[in-house]
Inverse folding.
């Protein structure tokens, strides 16, 4: 259990390597905070909750001076254990959270969210309980289901067929694991998932509004931007890390997707 759940009062871990295996669940008590995520900027206000499903897509975090929050970082493997069996709604929820991680809660939802956070924190530190793991997992599962409920109220409930849910889940696991560093073609992912490229893209469009190649490109671009910000790496090294055939090919890819050359982006 050690390290499966980490509770913080700040967002200092977001965007760091240490948080890459965790899903961050945030509740804002006061103030505001701007979060750069997936190439967009989002703002949290008091009463909002935020779920960061991919720490790799966090670019910057700018809290106001009076910002107060509670953050529950849950390791991906532990969260998977807590996922209600047979519930495929997490796929739809996860994909929309890639596009907008902030949820505006109603007053009664705010109250429920605060209660869920407090219960998880209480149970996390009550290690003497004879059924500690089971009780903690139950609290996390409740938190999870309440977030599903908030999301369904905001975006509408969509029941994802089992097969489609499995395909999408595995697709995102491949991206999260860094497969885009060596493979950036939809056909490759479709082959690994035992489906045709058209089916994979149609699933992505149906449940996220964008095709499969959008997600592959998004993960690739975010990685490129982070690597370019590391001035200790040369363009040649970055091209090698991301398996581009040459620095010139990397240059064309960056210019096409960012509108500037790798050198200019670093300025």
């Amino acid at each position: 259990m050690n390290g499966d759940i980490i509770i913080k009062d700040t967002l200092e871990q977001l965007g760091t390597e240490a948080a890459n295996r965790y899903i961050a669940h945030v509740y804002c008590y006061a103030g505001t905070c701007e979060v750069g995520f997936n190439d967009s900027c989002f703002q949290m206000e008091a009463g909002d909750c935020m779920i960061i499903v991919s720490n790799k897509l966090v670019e910057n975090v700018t809290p106001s001076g009076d910002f107060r929050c509670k953050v529950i970082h849950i390791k991906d493997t532990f969260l998977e254990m807590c996922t209600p069996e047979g519930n495929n709604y997490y796929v739809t929820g996860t994909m929309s959270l890639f596009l907008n991680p902030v949820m505006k809660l109603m007053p009664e939802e705010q109250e429920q969210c605060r209660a869920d956070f407090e219960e998880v924190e209480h149970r996390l530190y009550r290690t003497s309980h004879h059924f500690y793991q089971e009780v903690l997992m139950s609290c996390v599962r409740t938190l999870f289901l309440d977030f599903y409920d908030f999301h369904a109220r905001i975006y509408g409930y969509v029941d994802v067929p089992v097969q489609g849910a499995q395909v999408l889940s595995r697709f995102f696991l491949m991206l999260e694991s860094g497969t885009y560093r060596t493979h950036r073609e939809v056909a490759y992912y479709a082959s690994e998932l035992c489906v045709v490229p058209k089916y994979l893209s149609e699933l992505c469009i149906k449940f996220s509004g964008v095709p499969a190649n959008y997600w592959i490109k998004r993960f690739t671009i975010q990685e490129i931007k982070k690597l370019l910000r590391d001035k200790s790496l040369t363009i040649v090294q970055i091209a090698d890390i991301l398996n581009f055939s040459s620095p010139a090919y990397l240059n064309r890819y960056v210019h096409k997707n960012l509108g500037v050359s790798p050198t200019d982006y670093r300025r």
Q: What stands out?
A: DSSP finds eleven helices and eight strands in the chain. The longest strand covers residues 22-30. The CA atoms of residues 35 and 42 lie 5 Å apart. The chain has a mean pLDDT of 90.
